[in-house]
Amino acid sequence: MKGSFCTGAWVKTVACLTTGLWLLYACKPKPSPDANTETAAAQQMDSLYKLSNSNMVAGRFETGIVPCRQGIALAEAHHNDTMLVKLYSNLELYYHYRKPPDRDSVAYYLQLLLKHAYRSGDKRILMFALGKKSGWFTTQSRYDSVIATSRQRLLLAKELGDEVITLETQMEIGYAYEQKGDDDTALQCYNSALDIYTSLKEQYGRDTVSKAVKKLSFLYAQLLDNFSDYFFRQKDYVKSLDYLKEREASLSPQRRAHNPGLFISMGDCFEMLGQPDSAMKYYRTALQHVEESWYFRRFYVIAGRKYGALLVKRGRVKEGESYLAQSLRSARESNEPQLVVDGRVALAESFARQRQWRIAQDTLFAAAELAKKINSKAALASVYRSLYEIYTQEKDYERALQYSNLFHAYADSITSAQQRQTVAEMDAKYQAFKKSQQIALLQKDNRIQQLQLTAARRLKLFYISGGIVSLVLLGAFYYYRQQQQRRRLQRMKAELETKALRAQMNPHFIFNSLNAIQELVMTENYTASCEYLSRFSKLMRMVLEASEKNFHPLRAEIEITRLYIELESLRFRHLFRYSIRLPEAIDADSISFPSLLLQPFVENAIWHGLLQKEGVKELEVTFSEKENRLTCAISDNGIGREKAQLIKMRKLGAHQSGSKGIPATRERLEILKAAGECSGDISISDRLDDDGHVAGTLVEITIVFNENSNHDQDTYHR
Amino acid sequence: MTRILIIDDEAAASNVLRLLIEKHIAGEKEISVCNHPAGAFEAIAGFRPDLIMLDIEMPHLNGFDLLNQLGSWDFDVIFTTAYDRYAIKAIRFSALDYLLKPIDIADLQNAVYRHIALRGSKTAPKEVLVSNLMSNLHQKDPSAFRIALSTMEGYYFFPPRDIIRCEGNDNYTRFYLVSGKELLVSRTLKDFEEILADHDFVRVHKSHLLNMSYVTRFDKEGLIWLSNGVSIPVSRRKRTQIVQYFEGTA
Questions:
Q1: Contacts of B64 in chain A (CB under 8 A)
Q2: Beta-carbon separation of B101 and A653 below 8 A
Q3: Chain B environment of A648 (Cβ under 8 Å)
Q4: In this structure, which CATH number among 3.40.605.10, 3.30.40.10, 3.40.50.720, 3.40.50.2300 belongs to the domain B2-136?
Q5: Which stretch of A11-15, A302-306, A381-385 has the lowest confidence by average pLDDT?
Q6: What one-character-per-residue DSSP string does A351-416 give?
Q7: Residue A649 belongs to domain spanning
Q8: What's CA A344's distance to the chain center, in Å?
Q9: Nearest 5 degrees, angle CA A394-CA A400-CA A403?
Q10: Quick check: is A591 in a domain?
Q11: Contact flag A510-B84 (C-beta cutoff 8 Å)
């Protein structure tokens, strides 16, 4: 069956809605000069209506209903009939598309809407209301009422000189006659519609932007659909396809997705022309182009049904039946009995193909019941034809004949010789109109050709530039990855370094120093406390500065060492003697030395060598240089490593608080070596006295500078 | 009359402590200072202190060693240290007092006054606390450490594995033990959260600290079920942390 049979009703509903909006903008209620509050209320109502309408059009009914109800309350309070008509139309729309639809409410609000439209005395509003009413009758398949209402509307439109509405109303009436099976009158209506369109088209000329023109081309598209329908029913599928192609050509690419019905119709033509592959292609296109909105659901139903039926015919039964079942489900949801009938027929045919006669017949009987209820001759014809076919296949010839007769009776009422004549007349008229358009079309063709040429050139350029760009991108990506890896390695190194550095300045030293200062303050020894404090802060500042670098001048390293020893010596009341020896030959300002390398060793010498010992305690730090080797010797006359280790081991609760400074320093030297900056070596040995007894510890730190390494103080500075 | 002995190898440190006590601790007191850990035994025997302010970090003999060598204690101890995470952990675990150097006057007052206040009461014998600290320090296995819990009826010592959960209520914490016993301790849940953090205890809620080894289930409603059949709510903010905990151990 033809897909666009029922399209009209739906297209009309939306058309009504948009026309309504358009019309009502044109006739906003005039504010009465004596009441400012009235104006404010009117504005508020208007904005509520607009908010509601925009939500409704977008299919967000539940959101749209809220401002609508608020607006109604306001409009009723102000006795604003015009506004009430608008708002009731939205309320009616809400109940119509709600799940499940509330037909009683729809009828009720339509009545209210009409009442207020008459009361308002505004003819445009009345025209709008009548449009709503005829739309409602269309969905109810009450075509006589549609015709009566639309005639009333047609008179109003003519009176107001609104030719677009005249055209629309003519088409509505035609559609109603068509549905009633009275094709003769329908064609007369379409003829006059085409006349109006032709004259309007000339009138508007080259204008393609204004709302009226958009509406006009919308109606024209519908008219083309109607024409193609006729030829389809006349079994002139080639011609029907021509009209559809004309329609397709008038579509902009963006609008293609909004016209699934067109593709369905084209698929129908191809199917009838015996080209199932092309037909399936178009059905599939339609299915793919159907949007997920309430408005397009019926197209989804039709396309799915037809695609499924074709699949079944080609032997892909399972796949096809799933499409059919899905389509029937959606049909039920869509609240259109005609669609349900068609869906059942298609499913029955699929069952029959698999020789499941009983299920097929039951399905068809149910479809016939529904078709009778909605008084659709076309639907009944299709059901009877299917029944006839099934009984024939089942070899029940008596019943087959019975349904064959029924089918022909209905089918004949649809097409008649008289109609054919009218069609010829209409076709001639259309051809004449088409000729007048041809010149414009030719010009358009020329332009299209030009555009295509440029497009081809552009495509070539695109491929070449695309290739270059992707190569560059690949290269950039590779480079970026490399860089990232290098950066990650560097960051890892930096982290390791700072971690090692942090471990070096023992918190013990910091807090003990502060404690010593506290004591000096408590004993009111202000000069000493000042001195202590300034030295401590100087050391802290230098350590902070050094901890940001890997290298600093040897001078700075010596200064840190000196300050540290001095502070510890002060704290222990000069318990030990110390000396730092730097030969004149060494240029301490220009040699860069790994920062904060020496302090942990000095700390170790004081705490674990000297403080454990009785008697004279001495600490010596001596620097010496030989070629590119710089050696720093830290020597104490303490108790020696072995004893210190023993004491350390023996201490309770000390097994987790061991010094981390020296291992950290070794680790750091390894990193520096790996980085190729310098190599370092730490050797720790016992000092022996004349009798061969251990008399202290000697730590020798040797730094070998690479000939080529030219490390500025900030070489590895992050 | 309170007899206070300060033991610190650094003269400066002991000096500052003495001055602070003299200046900021009210009441009758007698202070003695010992700068040589080796001479501490004689000082203790001669001075017979009620309270010893004992430095932990000393050459030759640290504060813990000194106590260890004493063997018996009929005095209270307040430890002093500049910085020693491990030692502080051990001290808190054993419910003993400590002061950080440089000394804060308010901290000093709190610790000393608490000592003075408790001296008269029945719960006075702090030797048990010190002896528990000593046994903890000798333990190589941290899971065998015993936590000291001070209650109204005296001190209790339990390894953390005997505790199923703790429930906080203002300044009190209620302990639920494996044996079924309940103890009310006058310290905040936050204290115990810190003390028990290394022993697989997790704060799952504002007022709940759980021994995770007794958790049997974490359900979708956000409840943690313990092996004794009790369910504990997990606060919304902690849920991801708990999930991570289970994923980490799984």
A1: 651-653
A2: no
A3: none
A4: 3.40.50.2300
A5: A11-15
A6: HHHTT-HHHHHHHHHHHHHHHHHTT-HHHHHHHHHHHHHHHHHHT-HHHHHHHHHHHHHHHHHH--
A7: 549-705
A8: 38
A9: 140
A10: yes
A11: no
> What DSSP state is assigned to residue B134?
H
Q: Is the pLDDT of residue A41 over 90?
A: no
- What's the average model confidence in pLDDT over A457-478? 90
How many Å apart are CA A423 and CA A370, to the nearest integer? 31
The per-residue pLDDT for range B46-56, each reduced to its tens digit, is 999 989 999 99
Q: Which of A518, A573, A652 lies closest to B102 in CB terms?
A: A518
Q: Is residue A197 part of a domain?
A: no
Shortest Cα distance from B138 to chain A (angstroms)? 7
Pick the residue of B19, B22, B80, B100 with the most A CBs within 10 A to test the interface with A by mutation.
Answer: B19
Flag if A515 and B103 touch (Cβ within 8 Å). Answer: yes
Q: Is pLDDT of A263 > 70?
A: yes
Q: Where are the domains of chain B?
A: 2-136, 158-249
Asked if residue A406 belongs to a domain, the reply is no
Nearest by CB to residue B82, choosing from A515, A520, A612, is A515
By Cβ distance, the residue of A508, A611, A647 closest to B83 is A508
Residue with the bigger pLDDT between A458 and A578: it is A578
pLDDT confidence bin for A58, thresholds 50/70/90: confident
Q: What is the CATH number of the domain that holds A700?
A: 3.30.565.10
Residues of A with CB under 8 A from a CB of B: 507-508, 510-512, 514-520, 522-523, 571-573, 607, 611-612, 647, 650-654, 656-657
Whether the CB-CB separation of A383 and A368 falls below 8 Å is answered with yes
Q: What is the pLDDT of residue A26?
A: 46
Count of domains forming chain A: 1
Beta bridge partners of B172: B169
Examine the pLDDT at A717 and tell me if it is beyond 50.
no
Asked if the Cβ–Cβ distance from A653 to B90 is below 8 Å, we say: yes
Q: Which CATH superfamily does the domain covering B158-249 fall into?
A: LytTr DNA-binding domain (2.40.50.1020)
**How many alpha carbons lie under 13 Å from residue A112 in its C-beta half-sphere?**
19
ipTM above 0.90, yes or no: no
Mean pLDDT for chain A overall: 79
Residue A356 domain flag:
no
